[in-house]
Amino acid sequence: MPKDVTQALAIDSKTGTDFWRKAILVIAFDPKLTMDAIGKLYRLKEGSVGPPERYLGANIKRVQLLDGTMAWSIGANEYIDNALATVKATLESEGMKLKGKASKPLPNGYRSEMDVSLECNAVMTQRY
Q1: 85 assigned to some structural domain
Q2: Which stretches in the chain have pLDDT values below 50?
Q3: What is the pLDDT at residue 24?
Q4: Starting from the edge strand earliest in sequence, which strands make up the sheet with 70-75, in order?
């Protein structure tokens, strides 16, 4: 039997179920109860159990809505900044750069059904 959650999730992924290996996000009315049960089976990193701060590269925090209800908020600013830096670095390594501010995502008159672009190879498929 695996001794920690990371090992357990890696073993489960070999069965075809893909899990994030470094974190567990529990969504429940009482997530501590679930994490305590997991902690009895697997070694959890000290101090790692608590409210989420990040998920899938985005910042997470609790906010109070106008009606007083508490809710989770997800922010994409840091994720977008990192993605943009990656795109800029990739383009720069190929001697290209992003154009200035775009007024629209596609040119006037663009019709996707008329696009005759070649399909992406394996490297470009991973990129997009």
Answers
A1: no
A2: 1, 11, 16-20
A3: 76
A4: 54-55, 58-64, 70-75
